[in-house]
Amino acid sequence: VDVPNVNAFALPAGTIFITKPLILMAQSEAELAGVIGHEIGHVEARHTAERMEAAKRAQSKSWVYALGGGVLGGALGYGAGRLLCERRDRECIKRATELGAMGGTAGGLLIQKYAFMAHSREDEMEADRIGFRTSFKSGYSRDHIGLFYKRLLAMEQKARRSKTRVEMAVADAMSTHPPSKERVRQMRQMISEVSANPKAIVNTKTFLRLRKRLES
Asked: For residues 81 and 96, is the Cβ–Cβ distance under 8 A?
């Protein structure tokens, strides 16, 4: 796919899309095979279909999180108003209660969204495992399959240096993908569990021709 983003995704039926920048970012066919294997993992484990169904169920429960958060936030806002406002300043207490309710509603929906995304992070780790096994069984080098995640980790670390601690904590919490450090650690563990194959594929002429064509 000729777009400026580094990305890959799979449809529930099994069609896999890889963007041009991702192919150019991969330094070997084995790296690209690891990414495609990851998307195959999503298809095999039916993650996309399960996420779509979970999203439908989550929509029907949104009012529960919103109402619960609103009630709790309103109660906290009322309590804060009683403490901070003048005793007879009912308008101040009312505003504090309303602000608390609004914040609680937003917080409730945020908690629901994070719970949904956190489960998706588990799917990503499972897809990584399936992807490694699929790529390795297809004859690709065990030592190159997971190198793409090291590149992502380097990109994350560079991004961290330009952001505040709070911004990065929020970004980590809300990301649908687990931090690359976790993925690299898991990949190292899987590499240690299989034997090296001296005839394993790192690059092919077809891949090198493809990269050259995309670079032009």
From this structure: yes
Question: In whole angstroms, what is the distance from residue 180 CA to residue 137 CA?
Answer: 23
Q: Read off the pLDDT of residues 74-89 as tens digits, 9 standing for 90 and up.
A: 666 666 666 677 766 7
132 contacts 188 by C-beta, under 8 angstroms: no
Measuring CA to CA, which residue among 148, 147, 145, 149 is closest to residue 194?
145
The answer to whether 104 and 76 have CB atoms below 8 angstroms apart is yes
d(CA 81, CA 74): 10
Chain centroid to CA 144: 22
Q: Is the pTM of this model over 0.90?
A: no
Residue type, 96: A
CA dist., res. 162 & res. 154, Å (int):
13
For the beta carbon of residue 119, count every other beta carbon within 10 angstroms.
14
